[in-house]
Amino acid sequence: MIFDVDSKDTESLLRLLADLIMLTQNTKSRINALNDIDHELYLKPFANIEKILSALNLDSSWKPYRDLLNEPTLYGLRFCSDKLSRIDQAETVKKEDIEEIQSKLAALVEDILGTEIDMGVKELLLRNLEGLRQSLIAYRVRGLEGIEREVEVGLGALIINREKVERASSDNKVGSLIKAYFVLLEITNKTVAAAKSIKEIGVVDVANKLINMSS
Prior knowledge:
Blueprint: H1 10-33, H2 39-43, H3 46-55, H4 63-68, H5 71-87, H6 95-113, H7 119-137, H8 139-142, H9 144-160, H10 162-168, H11 172-196, H12 203-211
Helix pairs in contact: 1-3, 6-7, 6-11, 7-9, 9-11
């Protein structure tokens, strides 16, 4: 398992690697923007990190890359982390909260796949859920913004397709699935809002008002 992702889940691993590359570049930029440090000293550990990311092969042995993650490199990264954490207050979600959302998401996907439903609505729900799944996997690298964005995308996609969704939800089984989807978005949104210490928007209430789903 890498990043708590199955080694056979190549798509998720490649997404995470792309996020990790972006995170590395963003961190270097933030270090360069500071004016009270020795930039050369703080940026030194990134040389080995970039060597790993530029040559990483998912099918190759991990040993050559592990050797680059030596003690000086890891120690240097800790200094960078400490410095940046004093500037920004990190927003974190408990691992068990992420796992609970992932479990509910997986169960909902299985329910959708096992239910006769308009193909357009099914594809819409599954596509949105996959986006949310990927953002939950990438949370440790990408942070809360990715999850927050997928909640917004998921809600917006169904609002844009509200006529199609309303027609499909006339079937009680389908309507229950769509409501379960909005409940999942609301749980996710509340989790993010709690981590950011902000007042969350009631996703289900907003969805019901905009799509006019019956209660």
